[in-house]
Amino acid sequence: MHRLEGKVALVTGSGSGIGRAMAALFATEGAHVVVCGDREPSLVETVSEIVGRGGSAESHLCDVTDEAAMARLILDTAGRRGRLDILVNNAFRMTAAPITAMSTAAWKDSFSVALDAVFYATRTAMPIMFEQGGGVILNISSTAGHAALHSLAGYSSAKAALESFTRVSAIEGAPGGVRVNALAPGCIATPGTLAAFPTETARRAMFRLIPLGRFGEPDEIAKAALFLVSDDSSFVTGACLVADGGQRASLGAPAIEEGFVH
């Protein structure tokens, strides 16, 4: 407990799912959390949940793809709170369509949120962290950036590029005491994932491809994130931690069950 006592953390896309779980856990560990995203009602819910548990948080409506707005939020946070210790780039946008049917706008949209917005935020946050003697940046990637998924060319490509950006950021941040890492979740039981597998049959079929036999929970990803943003990982930078129940460790062929019909 209290591994983030006195820290100031900004988490993008923290109105729901993994982002909300990270914000809540960081607050429990003593951080003041700046919750931001593009859906105000969900941001307010996240802050209410944190404050109701005795934590410290504030919400800000912000389009992470707006370069100027993102910079203002980071600079304002550091100015009001006196520092910015943790930046988690979690916001994402996904459009599912085959390459031949994907619009140019949809392709660019994936990159604008998963990559461009991370660049804007990192460019602004790094000098602040340098000046205060260090900090941590965590980029939320995806196992979709490690292996191909049909109809996710934009999202998968953007996440793969994000991990390369993470490594460059880690090298450039190291002299100033700034650690930069990535976290790549697999199938996590967020509202979006559950909607993509709406029936028990569909979910069980997916479970067969995950060695641990289930979807991960947002709280489990939040705990992995806590390790990466806390001093517990003080010698870890430029790395990507995969949290996918073992799915990427497998060739993808589930054990044959008697009576199984494809």
List the helices and strands and how they pair.
Layout: E1 8-12, H1 17-28, E2 32-37, H2 40-52, E3 56-61, H3 67-81, E4 86-89, H4 104-132, E5 135-140, H5 153-173, E6 178-185, H6 191-196, H7 200-207, H8 218-229, E7 240-243
Parallel strand pairs: 1-2, 1-4, 2-3, 4-5, 5-6, 6-7
Helix pairs in contact: 1-2, 1-8, 3-4, 4-5
Q: What would the keywords be for this entry?
A:
Rossmann fold, 262 residues, seven-stranded parallel β-sheet, 15% strand, alpha/beta
Briefly, what is this?
The chain has 262 residues and is an alpha/beta fold.
Please describe what this structure looks like:
There is one protein chain. With 262 residues, the protein is of the alpha/beta class. It has one domain (8-246): NAD(P)-binding Rossmann-like Domain (Rossmann fold, 3-Layer(aba) Sandwich), CATH 3.40.50.720. Helix content is 44%, strand content 15%. A 7-stranded parallel β-sheet has the order 3-2-1-4-5-6-7, with helices on both faces. Helix 1 (17-28) packs parallel to helix 2 and helix 3 (67-81) packs parallel to helix 4. The N and C termini lie far apart (47 Å).
